[in-house]
């Protein structure tokens, strides 16, 4: 029987900030540029004699993130040189922050934050099939936010959930598009396991991850790899290193031994001034100007409209649907909101996926009112919705009236239809009389089909029971 092992995971997450220009020069910050080495200048290419100037908007963006997380915003901060040589770093060092980050502390998704600091991004190495490596420096110098968590995460799912919530926050604040597929957000887990709770094992870092799902898979694989080594008595083979993630093979692989902070020879950058952030920025005004944060929005949707957690989460993530829902429900009660949410998050979503568009707010609100008022059945509402979404039809009440879809609540009108269905389906009727309750549902479905979904289901069910006695 295997022992119990205690996983410990910390995250380092980089996010490119969507400023107009790079971090220390005036070059355009354009993640969609396809022409190589177009957005470069002597400063971001480290020509002799050039001097960097810090991007104030990038610093403000990181302050906003810190305020949203309830973090401490530093008064004093400075930039440091992180020294290492690699072809995609023109200077031979990266301008980053070490001892004095912009943000310290805070919490997100019950995970404690250690720090958030600013640095410049590197260029992009492209390995040619002919054996050459080419470097595109368009990305070199782009402002990069790095968030480091405390090592308090204990599962792959918890790590993935944290990353998704951070991505949502960055997009809500408007400071980063944070598209992992485009490299605008990079998640690097630091992982260890130990047979003793509270004792850290040897840590490895995983890179080359381009989705939250891949991050979760990589963590799961690495935890299993470490546990297998412990079980085989080979835990000494777990070394402090950087490992890559092979998406095709679904495995991690060794890349290089992991550096320590002293390997980078950090020291303050002499070309950039020290900063007193509380003098440079109106921190209280920035805090007051924050938009509604994701966790507050979820709570409001559940409390004010009685939505379930999944519905509230969808509206928190999807701003377009959220704005539409709020427009539809303006001035309405909680019961209206619950029905509107149900149709938006299920039926309308399905129609949108096949090329539909959001119906006029007044038309969709009228549809919901007709459902609540018993004018149409749920089946009819689902049938009318594509007409509103795909074809831009007018009033749902007009559609229902023209097509004879208004709910039939008159027993005398429904009785002949029910009698015909029973007569044409004698065997199914006999099955019900013989004790097969499911047969009643089959007959109900036939009546609904015969009436194009307009029959009142409750009334129809009672008529079926009465006529089948």
Features:
single chain; alpha+beta; Arc Repressor Mutant, subunit A; 3 domains; 10-stranded mixed beta sheet; 3-stranded antiparallel beta sheet; 16 helices
Descriptive report:
The protein is α+β, with helices and mostly antiparallel strands. It folds into 3 domains: 6-286, no CATH class; 294-402, no CATH class; 411-467, Orthogonal Bundle (Arc Repressor Mutant, subunit A). The protein contains 16 helices and 17 strands. Strands 1, 2, 6, 7, 8, 11, 12, 13, 14 and 15 form a 10-stranded mixed beta sheet that branches. A 3-stranded antiparallel beta sheet has the order 5-4-16, with no helix packed on it. Strands 3-17 form a two-stranded antiparallel ribbon. Helix 13 (411-424) packs across helix 15. The mean pLDDT is 91.
Strand content is: 15-25%
Overall pLDDT level: 91
Form type: elongated
Rg on CA atoms, Å: 30 Å
Q: What structural class results from the helix and strand content?
A: alpha+beta
Oligomer: single chain
What is the percent of helical residues?
40-55%
Instruction: Pick out the low-confidence regions.
Output: none
Q: Count the helices. How many? A: 16
Q: How many domain regions?
A: 3
Span between N and C termini?
62 Å
Major β-sheet annotation: 10 strands, mixed
Count of distinct strands? 17
